Amino acid sequence: MSDENFQGLEGETGPQLRVLTQYIKDLSFENPNAPRTVGPLSEQPQISVRVDVGAQRLGETEFEVTISLGAEAKIQDELMFLTELDYCGLFRLVNIPAEQLEPVLLVECPRMLFPFARRIIADATRDGGFPPLLIDPVDFVGLYQQRRTEGEVPN
């Protein structure tokens, strides 16, 4: 291998996507009916999950991307738990064509963040006295297309 394969990114002019940092912006877990709801259960809980993504420009090439995850579990009308998470990443995007910026921010960046956010939700539910909630993988392309169809993302 030649040394050119190990050159730094400074000399590159192609598209670049870097994760600068990741962090929890907001996390909550509510267990309002404990200890009644943390023991053996007579039936399976109804679990609903919400997923959203957003991005905001912080600088010329820096963007904050947020995955918002929410989950609640109920048996009949009794709430077992409610958890909400805003998990963020600070990304540096360089030489990304303008028409590709939005899909990179709302599809590719959330794909990178999702495994970490999923683990935080699993840990929170486990630490709350329940089996860990492992959220199914998210189709970020489908979510992006749905938001575009509904007019939430400009064309």
TrEMBL record:
Gene3D superfamilies: SecB-like
GO cellular component: cytoplasm
GO biological process: protein folding; protein tetramerization; protein transport
Gene Ontology molecular function terms on file: unfolded protein binding
Compartments (UniProt record): Cytoplasm
Main location as per UniProt: cytoplasm
Entry-linked InterPro entries: SecB, SecB-like_sf
Domain of life: Bacteria
Family annotation (Pfam families): SecB
Keywords assigned: Chaperone, Cytoplasm, Protein transport, Translocation, Transport
Family stated for the protein in its record: Belongs to the SecB family.
Primary role: One of the proteins required for the normal export of preproteins out of the cell cytoplasm. It is a molecular chaperone that binds to a subset of precursor proteins, maintaining them in a translocation-competent state. It also specifically binds to its receptor SecA.
Subunit structure: Homotetramer, a dimer of dimers. One homotetramer interacts with 1 SecA dimer.
Name of protein: Protein-export protein SecB
Lineage: Bacteria, Pseudomonadati, Pseudomonadota, Alphaproteobacteria, Hyphomicrobiales
Annotated gene: secB
